[in-house]
Amino acid sequence: MNGFGSYHPAVLFSYYVLAVSFSMFSMHPVIILASVAGGFLLFGAQNGIRKLFKELGFFLVLFLLMSLVNPLFIHNGETVLFFMNDNPITLEAIIYGSMASLMIVGVLLWCRCYGAILTTEKFLYLFGKLIPKLGLILSMVFRFIPLFKVQIRKINQSQKTMGLYATDSVADKIGGGVRVFDSLVSWSMENSIDTADAMKARGYGLPGRTNFTLFRFRKRDGILMAVMGALAAAVFTGFAWGSYGFYYYPYVAEISRDIQSAAAYLIVLAFMCIPGILELKEKVSWNYLKSKI
């Protein structure tokens, strides 16, 4: 498979840093929507449509909850819709909350995709020599996030098998959750110590140590890096020219529709869709080759 994850770790890391930065540091609706679209495209290409729709419910609930919180606490804006406990609920606050929620959803999507593509091995290849201790800690943190989900399920099933969930009462469920959390913390601490000791015994961080896997920077890595650099430079230029400027208070600004702004929007959309397009291209090619067997 020669999808996006098969590129050099430096290319992958550079892309994710830029994609998350563009998503986090701009509240322009076009950038936020482009980030969410690119994240969903990559997630769907990686995991399939069925898994995408399964996860869509979680992101939808998160979006609705965060969208409703902002107008309850922020009352700025000139378009008052109604009053709640003598506090105005404004249209601008609702729109801002919705855009902020979409931004967080987009960042979470990129983080989910990041963990599947930029593996621990690739992360250690990049930072194992430069910052060995910090690189090891960060790689362990990223690795423990999916491991926690698996371990929680194992601990919960073990406790059910042992009959520790005697009833379906709320108190029993809370007590079971506390036991699961306590076991999870103990397991994570023991596992992290074992991992650190094993890495030290194998000479991790010593001068002259080589990597198990050698990632060669090939021609296609250079081409993708050049395309990414050109698009990122164009996005930074758009920020400098104010093409991505936007405000929500005291009223919501209009989205610019001139040629310069349209070009800036297409550039950021193209940048966000790079990994998803590469993954889809590889999946289509792979399925086509399998159909010929």
Automatic annotation (TrEMBL):
Membrane topology: Multi-pass membrane protein
Keywords of the record: Membrane, Transmembrane, Transmembrane helix
Protein name, per record: Energy-coupling factor transporter transmembrane component T
Positions of transmembrane segments: 12-44, 56-74, 94-111, 123-145, 223-247, 259-278
One protein family per Pfam: CbiQ
Upper classification of the organism: Bacteria, Bacillati, Bacillota, Clostridia, Lachnospirales
Primary residence: membrane
Keyword Transcription regulation on entry: no
InterPro entries: ABC/ECF_trnsptr_transmembrane (IPR003339)
Gene Ontology CC annotations of this record: plasma membrane
Keyword Transmembrane recorded: yes
UniProt superkingdom: Bacteria
Subcellular location: Membrane
